Amino acid sequence: MIVLSWNVRGLGSNMKFSAVRKLIRKVKAEMVLLQETKKEAVTEREVAKLWYDDAFNFVESSSIEKLGGLLLIWDSSKFKMEKCQVNVRYIPVSGIWANDLVATNWLNVYGWRLQRGKEIRGAKGPY
Question: Is 0.90 surpassed by the pTM of this model?
Answer without folding.
Answer: no
